[in-house]
From TrEMBL:
Compositionally skewed regions (Basic and acidic residues) per UniProt: 11-21
Residues covered by region (Disordered): 1-21, 68-96, 170-203, 222-249
Biological processes per GO annotation: methylation; vesicle-mediated transport
EC number: 2.1.1.-
Protein name as catalogued: Protein-lysine N-methyltransferase EFM4
Keyword S-adenosyl-L-methionine annotated: yes
Stretches with biased composition (Polar residues): 176-190
Primary location class: cytoplasm
Ranges where the Methyltransferase domain occurs: 97-168
The keyword Transmembrane helix appears for this protein: no
Biased composition annotated in UniProt, kind: Low complexity: 223-245
GO molecular function terms listed in the Swiss-Prot or TrEMBL record: protein-lysine N-methyltransferase activity
Amino acid sequence: MAGAQQQAQEKPAHLEPSELGTKEYWDNLYVNEISNHAHDPDDKGTVWFDDSDAEAKMIAFLNALDPDAETSDHSDDDDCNQQQRQPGNGSLPRLHQSTTTFLDLGTGNGSLLFGLRDAGWRGKMLGVDYSAKSVEFARQIARSRREEDGEDTQQGGDDVEFREYDILNGRPETLLPSTLPSRASSEPIPQQQQQQDGAVGEGEEGWDVILDKGTFDAISLYSSSSSSSSQQDDNNTTTATTTSTRRPNEGYKAAVLPLVREGGLFLITSCNWTEDELARWFEGDFDSQQQEAERQSQQWRFSKVGRVDYPSFSFGGVKGQTISTLCFMKVRG
């Protein structure tokens, strides 16, 4: 048993770095998508994991948590309702379409939040991204949606809000629903206010639901962990040495935890990590010293409470999915 527990806590092997993990890549992508949308308002940009219908399945999962939602009886929600009745998932909270608040990390073009609005969710919604061009693009789409609906483009009403924010280097208290104005400022949070200096106080109220559709994937593809230095050997030959430190994605859980209210949900979708690996990343205690300090100071942790089914495949006798969506709850202990 001890061996099995130790194996369950082992950190998954890191992914090979890729340009998809760099801010430059995403800035350039959204510059192009802004231009495309300006020429064709129907072009809303890339919807990540669209081939797996991930966005619709995530929304269906959330719809199933509000029994009063108009969409809760739709057949698309049947699998999600069934998953809630599985052993161990009985602690999923009831959500309310009229009041549940959402924070979307790495929002991109805001597609997931717009999808929730279209599905009837009316609570406060904020999408954040470290790419200023992403935020500009999402706001541009929000304006075009208001124009299509015949609304005042200068008044947001119950519209989705967007803000520039670096999840790994920001101060979580600046993103709490209670600290935001009725309409988020168009100005990015000053860099000097984005230096992480501790956890949110226990009395602060976080978001009901935190969303991640591919953001942890992108962060996992970035490596700032290697620094090269030169040294001379006994033959006066200069050789390069590499010093390895922690990868940026190892600090992601600690950055997300303070943003969720107690009993709130973290719904994450990944194409790079299996369900088992996601569970180890967000339930494990092997991570950084910062995460360990957070755990000891407030005793917060994530507990897996749900999942979304996707079509599976078999290869070499192993059955798997091309995409994974898990739901975690923030709990004490």
